[in-house]
Design goal:
Radius of gyration: 17 Å
Number of strands: 11
Order of helices and strands: EEEEHEEEEEHEEH
CATH class: Alpha Beta
Structural class: alpha+beta
CATH architecture: 4-Layer Sandwich
Length: about 240
Amino acid sequence: MTSLDIAESASDLRVELVETASSRALVVRLDGPHEALSWAIVNGGRTRTDSVVWREVRIGELGPAVDPSAVMRETLAQVGAPGAVGLLTGRDVRNYEIERVERDGVVAECLATAGLGNLLAVGDPTVPVRAPAGTINLLCRVSIGLTEEALLEASAIAVEGRTAAVLAAGLRSPLSGRPATGTGTDCVVVAAPAMVGAERFAGKHTACGSAVGAAVFGAVARGVARWIEESSCPMA
């Protein structure tokens, strides 16, 4: 197993790319314990963690007989972060974007990977997931503590930012032809430092909500643009 530190300047997120014989992972270390909220396949829901890990899935790795959560847990053990929030993606995890936004002293940083091979519009009929599925996975870390209610509100703002960025690209669902709003396997992680005196609100009228929305929109918009540029067919 080999690793390469690729920490970003002016960022509180420490990013490490880890290569093993069978997989590639992007390990994002947070600055101390954080309260996190997500629907991630491993350590999702409300949890306390100091890291988030992207695991790149390659063709043929997953199938009906394979438990994807077991694959993710094995990777977390390999990178020494069993308590990390774990995300799976078919996107090359080396292609990530970071956006940092400050509003009235509150900082939000979003790290996103964007693959659109599983592009859909909200409300499309259900279809089998094509493996490996390109997906939009993102982590948005804020610099202030948030209550559970505020974490939920920040998560909603982050999802809205993701959707706005996809809509701005003008892509359409290959299934229904309606404006695409994301992929069928997107995942959003919101994290805030574990601390006393957490903020109760994180909506659009707050500095936190404004920073979260702008950071997510910026990172996802660049990721979508990169994917379109790299892809010979945006709907592939």
